[in-house]
Design a protein that fits this description.
Number of domains: 2
Protein name: AbiTii domain-containing protein
Number of helices: 14
Number of strands: 10
Helix content: 40-55%
Distance between the termini: 47 Å
Radius of gyration: 23 Å
Strand content: 15-25%
Pfam families: AbiTii
Length: about 325
């Protein structure tokens, strides 16, 4: 019994944490970091450690941690101050445009989760702000004074990037999706109780799987209701047209994408028995449990949908029904 415990990693606990959107990402990240260390998987260890501790300034930041931004500057003209004037980034020199196009989020996942709690508060007026270093102001000055002409010499005294705070939610959603897709893929190959000796026999190939999910298997949305699951494991493209509260459209869509009539009927029966959380876009326990069961069927081959796409397809469809 002891030997099995020492040489077995229980993946089911990780998946249960990931499928519950209300739970912090810290626990599954810590568990997968441990798994990466005991299996000597450098990619998984580094990825989870960066998300746990935060990325260093000189590290390669994932694209999902770059949030589109607008540039605002403060002017001083004689005795008069002119704060918060928007400056089009496209007018700046090329060497500074790239820096000002995005706010780069280096913080740990715990800090991001805490920020998201503030951003999601009712009537929240929090904005995502990044003050530009003072040494960059001289590079902004020439274009700013050309755009905002004045008879009095105008001096740029400050500048900041402003981003949409709701985009911060996309960071945690992408990390959760990446980890879930990877975990489901590994569960499909090795089961929920992974024998480490068997796993390590294919270490090099498994490293490639980890790298793929952590860097290229992100989910992007284009237009209203389009799901495109990118990466080598992509198996589904769908246009979701489900009106809020329309059970017929929801049932039709699920069955068109391989959910059995019995499983669809089960969801239709329970979906209105509990209230979702529209602010955090999370479902109640019964709907979450049903979703777990469906993803389990994707793993077992009982639902012919790629694992990485399964969770997103369900989340998008149910979210449309709830009006998220």
């Amino acid at each position: 019994m002891t030997e099995k415990t020492n040489n077995t990693f229980i993946l089911n606990n990780v998946i249960n944490d990931l499928i519950d959107a209300e739970k912090s990402l810290i626990n599954p990240l810590m568990k997968l970091n441990y798994f990466g260390r005991i299996t000597k998987n450098k990619e998984l260890t580094e990825y989870t450690l960066n998300e746990i501790k935060g990325y260093s300034a000189d590290s390669k930041l994932p694209d999902y941690r770059k949030i589109g931004a607008r540039l605002y500057v403060d002017f001083q003209a004689g005795w008069n101050s002119h704060p918060n004037k928007e400056l089009p980034v496209a007018g700046l020199d090329k060497d500074i445009q790239e820096f000002c196009n995005h706010i780069r989020v280096y913080e740990s996942i715990r800090e991001i989760e805490n920020m998201n709690l503030k951003f999601s508060e009712k009537d929240s007026h929090y904005e995502l702000k990044f003050p530009l270093p003072l040494q960059l102001l001289p590079q902004i000055q020439p274009f700013a004074t050309r755009l905002y002409k004045s008879d009095i010499r105008m001096q740029v005294t400050g500048a900041r990037l402003i981003g949409n705070s709701s985009k911060m939610m996309g960071i945690t959603e992408t990390v959760r999706t990446n980890l879930l897709a990877f975990s489901m893929e590994i569960a499909e190959q090795f089961g929920y109780e992974i024998e480490l000796t068997d796993y390590n026999k294919q270490r090099e190939e498994n490293n490639k799987t980890i790298l793929q999910y952590m860097t290229t298997n992100n989910i992007t949305t284009s237009g209203d209701g389009n799901i495109i699951n990118t990466g080598d494991k992509a198996k589904i493209e769908a246009n979701i047209n489900i009106s809020k509260g329309n059970k017929e459209e929801l049932a039709k869509y699920l069955q068109e994408n391989g959910i059995s009539p019995e499983d669809t009927a089960e969801l239709v029966e329970i979906i209105d028995t509990e209230e979702p959380n529209p602010e955090n876009k999370t479902f109640g326990k019964k709907v979450s449990d049903w979703t777990k069961k469906m993803i389990g069927k994707a793993v077992d081959g009982g639902w012919n949908v790629g694992i990485g796409a399964a969770g997103s397809l369900l989340a998008e469809a149910i979210g449309k029904y709830y009006g998220f």
